Amino acid sequence: MNTGLRRATRVTAFLSAAVLLVSACGSRTSDTSTGGTSGAASCVDTSGDSVKIGLLNSLSGTMAISEKTVNDSLNLAVEQINAKGGVLGKKLSVVTEDGASEPTVFAEKATKLISSDCVAAVFGGWTSSSRKAMLPVFEGANGLLFYPVQYEGLEASPNIFYTGATTNQQIVPALDYLKEKGVKTLFLVGSDYVFPRTANKIIQAYAKANGIEVKGEEYAPLGHTDFATIVNKLKGSGASAVFNTLNGDSNVAFFKEYKNAGLAAATTPVVSVSIAEEEVGGVGVDNLVGQLTAWNYYQTVDSPANKTFVEAFKAKYGATRVTSDPMEAAYTSLFLWQAMVEKAKSFAPNDVKNAAGGVSYDAPEGPVTVNGENHHIAKTALIGKVGADGLIHTEWSSGKPIEPDPFLKDYAWATGLSG
Amino acid sequence: MEALIGQLFAGLSLGSVLLLAALGLSLTFGQMGVINMAHGEFMMAGAYTVFVVQGVVADAGLALVVSIPLGFLVGGLLGLLLEVLLIHRMYHRPLDTLLVTWGVALILQQVARDVFGAPNVDVKAPTWLSGGVDLGFTQVPAARLFILALSVAAVGALAVVLTRTSLGRRIRGVVQNRDLAETVGISTRDTDRLTFFIGSGLAGIAGVALTLLGSTGPTLGTNYIVDAFLVVVAGGIGQIKGTVIAAFGLGLMQATFEYSTTASLAKVAVFVVVVVFLQIRPQGIFSIRTRSLA
């Protein structure tokens, strides 16, 4: 009995090892085969009455929590476009791939979507590392990627459209707001990776030029769960506001610690750039009430387009669901692509790229316009305050869309940052 | 001066969190030699227990108090199930248990995701545990003080069970010499099951406590599992006092390094210290002397 079992487990172990080996080889062959086709011309098939698009979000792994919501709003946009007759008379047919929170998987799946599924455009990506991994794939195969998340700027690929904010549409307005409020001392807290490090470089340069003193700059490893020391340093620094670029679960631990240490939003407000409606519930409304956020869209934005978007989203996914900035940017990206294709009267990436400049759409966040040079979009910056209802309410608005400036060329204090 | 005391407390507090996370592991890994990668997921189950209880009991304080024994039960029963179904088939095969329990951990994470959704859930802290407690010379967070007390209580209770009860004598007997224990009529099967139940239950309690400090989500356990193993290995296999000293030592070290450098560097420094220490003393701070031939 016992030896029988032992043999059984040994066999299973062997089998699973064999499966692992085979799948490893499988992925390797697909890698090499894609290398050959990457330079080939687009194989998008537009002969039928439908056209394929790719949705590439992490549906598993650590990023699934955020990227699933983007996938939901993308599917809503597809449904709405198809209900109105599709794009250039062709229904959209969706090919969904899972990026699995791994940049290498993103690159691999992007290759598959472009070269073997022959999709007209790919929508997705979240982390900067996933975008950076996909960039050479899209440039090599001349595909189109619509990337829906705010990021650290300093990039402008001809094959990527960035529908989230770049730094001058999120971080710089947030700093303008703090300066307007008379904040003289800042404390910077961030996760230890590319976005917070770049953001803080920009903040340091801005602070230096505007007479704001940065009292401390602290980084926590991703997934860091104990903020006692960092909050201790923050408390001891006496800074009058905090700029928070922490990511994911660390926010929960940070805000709980912040509250436990006796700090309050009224005296030491925290401006966060990665807490949206979706995250408020997880951090706990009690821990966040009164804290500030910097985005370009909130569920509470008062516009007819947003009312329709929120109602349609809740009708499709449930009344308890919320809509957030990246979800809105993803939703908008699909309509922008539709407008580009219809302007170009073609699905070919080169035609779409040429038609892109000046294309605008009345998005839930307000009117947005594509910049033909850097492929970012002009968006209105909004500073929001977390309310007791768990939603974010606009405190301050830039009033009009801000032209995207991913390399901060038009800011004198930022010279030397992009180098 | 206040910063110094604040840091000292931060270190002790971090130590107590590590201790809670590692205490159960020191039983199942330290005493039984089972590498249980699902230990973190038992913590997650404990954390979700608070969330579920809060759905029934409106008062957050009462919910927390009820959740402590309930979390122990939930973690313990999950552990018992794992032991009976899988682990008992593979004692003395640490590599197999590692792989199997890792698979179980992934399954449990997905179950949590399917039941409670992928986003973190909001577990409210009782009003008497939010904010600080004034100790006269300095103010410390009440939640951290509570966790410190809870970890001391857990260690105390475990020590009493191990040294003063017949169950504890049986556990120690089986650890020191399994064959001899069997020949004097101790059912090692029952003892293994009970030990695993207690060890996993302690993980449940740790999960309950962690809701006061961090996020409650499907991946809660993975954030702590590596640190927990680190504590047990540094403390020495099979000794509760080693785990206690290692937990507080590592906690204080992390807090001190972090204050003078950065969080990332402190983590590196702590790992380096532990690796160097294990080079000099591979058996950890304490090791158990046994006459068993195994």
From TrEMBL, chain A:
GO terms for biological process: amino acid transport. It comes from the Bacteria. Residues 1-24 form the signal peptide. Gene3D superfamilies: 3.40.50.2300. Coiled coil: none annotated. SUPFAM superfamilies: Periplasmic binding protein-like I. Keywords: Signal. InterPro entries: ABC_urea-bd_UrtA, Leu_Ile_Val-bd, Peripla_BP_I. The keyword Cell division does not apply. PANTHER family: ALIPHATIC AMIDASE EXPRESSION-REGULATING PROTEIN, PTHR47628. NCBIfam families: urea_ABC_UrtA. This is Urea ABC transporter substrate-binding protein. It comes from Umezawaea endophytica. The gene is urtA.
Automatic annotation (TrEMBL), chain B:
GO terms for biological process: amino acid transport. CDD domains: TM_PBP1_LivH_like. Its main location: membrane. Keywords: Amino-acid transport, Cell membrane, Membrane, Transmembrane, Transmembrane helix, Transport. The chain crosses the membrane at residues 6-30, 42-64, 70-88, 95-112, 142-162, 194-216, 228-252, 264-280. GO terms for molecular function: transmembrane transporter activity. InterPro entries: ABC_transp_permease, ABC_UrtB_bac, BCAA_transport_permease. Coiled coil: none annotated. The keyword Nucleotide-binding does not apply. GO terms for cellular component: plasma membrane. It is a multi-pass membrane protein. It is found in: Cell membrane. Belongs to the binding-protein-dependent transport system permease family. LivHM subfamily. This is Urea ABC transporter permease subunit UrtB.
